[in-house]
Amino acid sequence: MTAADLTHRIKALALAAGFSRVGVARAHPRPEDQRRLQDWLDAGRHGDMAWLAKDPARRADPGRVVAGARSVLVVALDYDSDAPRTETQPGHGWISRYAWGTDYHLLMERRLKALTRAVAAEVAPGLPTDWRGPGQGEAPFDPRTDFRWSVDYGPVLERRWAEEAGLGWQGKHSLLVDPQRGSFFFLATVITPLALTPDAPQTDHCGSCTACMDACPTDAIVAERVVDARRCISYLSIEKRGPLTPTEASLLGDHVFGCDLCQDVCPFNRFSEPAGEPALEPRSGAVAPRLADLLGLDDEAFRARFRQSPVKRTKLAGLRRNVTAVLANQARDASE
Ligand code: B12
Ligand code: SF4
Ligand code: SF4
Known about the structure:
With 336 residues, the chain is α+β, with helices and mostly antiparallel strands. It is 33% helix and 12% strand.
């Protein structure tokens, strides 16, 4: 099979596995991104996310992740729905729209496993029958099928590869924007030794717009494409462990989990259409939940309500911390 035929076939398999879009970038070191990442880390913008500071050189070079890496396959999964953009009223909090349904890690991991097994069957049809799949300790080792896939947690600057693979451009809020679909989609990558035909990189369409930077209520977007996590509501409500300082608690506003404000205002999200993915549709009570209901959850009720949901990440204690902060913010606003 030629590289072009193989690329075509793999893209068809990715769509068949349930991804919304797929693109290919040539694997190469990214010294400029390594420098920017290092500057970001040196400025402490990652807050307590110490794992981001682990081996930044690896994050900027797929060859350090897979020996002989030649391509980065990038997949996207849309998650928008018909539900309203951020809209809260007293007594209610906001959960970010990406977290209304099933955890995307679970969905994408299942699909990445199916995809990489299907690709392996194409490129190495003689695999032993006990081969359990990429990254699962299978033997004997076959370099053709040394696929490393990850969603979020891999040492990969996903948006940089997605931009290069033609799936969108990194907007001024730092998220990837597709000119037709907007930004409500997830990303995942597969680093592979296969030589595939790269796509043309997407170009930047932000122009003079600064709507996302103007809309950020905490000034977390400190420069174009640079987010200081320590001021970002998403970080404070999801990733930050332990108690919030009074300033951090006030930055949450009405948000109990994540934040969509910089994406809500992006003109490209006006064209966004519902993803039509049942597992990502809002569960009952997910959109603008009552704060009293959330505060009343015990361990068992929390586990049942947020089973297989991204919200599980905060654990009950984290969610309670956030709800308490939002209640205080709303009480303060009401008395002003
Ligand atoms: C850590 C992390 C966070 C942190 C830090 C955010 C950040 N902007 O880095 C926090 C917790 C705040 C966060 C929040 C969110 N996240 Co997040 N996050 C990540 C994660 C795991 C790593 C990102 C990372 O490496 N950051 C380090 C910084 C330095 O990287 P960077 O921003 O890409 O930096 C580059 C650019 O700034 C660029 N750059 C700087 N200057 C310039 C200038 C020019 C001209 C150019 C071209 C580039 C450029 O160079 C830097 C180095 O390469 C990725 C998954 C992954 N592995 O990539 C998901 C990811 C980015 N998150 C995602 C999502 C959905 C979110 C939220 C929307 C969730 C929510 N609703 O609450 C928010 C959005 C907040 C925001 N505006 O960024 C999605 C984004 C999907 C998309 N369409 O882009 C990802 C890709 C997860 C996924 N698998 O789908 N996130
Ligand atoms: S997610 Fe919210 S807090 Fe974070 S950069 Fe966007 S608007 Fe600002
Ligand atoms: S809101 Fe404007 S500046 Fe921000 S990402 Fe969208 S188009 Fe770019």
